[in-house]
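Fill in residues.
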């Protein structure tokens, strides 16, 4: 078998794998949307839920750094943050 035929076959296999993964990703996205819809139907604020999920992905160090920068920026533009829950955590 020629080198070109092997490369063509390998390329085709990569493309097919990517296509399968894209379909799985689409299905997972739909499942996630369904869960958010269910949470919303139960009365949860989905914007806050998304933020909580994003925060949970962050390391404690990165969260602390983000909180510190947020406080600095807010103070610079005259916004007073009163976040007793965040301070207690």
């Amino acid at each position: 078998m020629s080198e070109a035929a092997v490369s063509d076959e390998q390329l085709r296999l990569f493309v097919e794998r990517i296509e399968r993964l894209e379909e799985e990703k689409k299905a997972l996205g739909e499942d996630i949307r369904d869960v958010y819809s269910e949470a919303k139907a139960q009365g949860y604020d989905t914007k806050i839920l998304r933020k909580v999920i994003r925060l949970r992905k962050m390391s404690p160090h990165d969260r602390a750094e983000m909180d510190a920068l947020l406080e600095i920026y807010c103070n610079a533009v005259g916004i007073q943050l009163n976040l007793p829950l965040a301070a207690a955590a």
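Helices lie at 3-41, 46-57, 60-76, 84-88.
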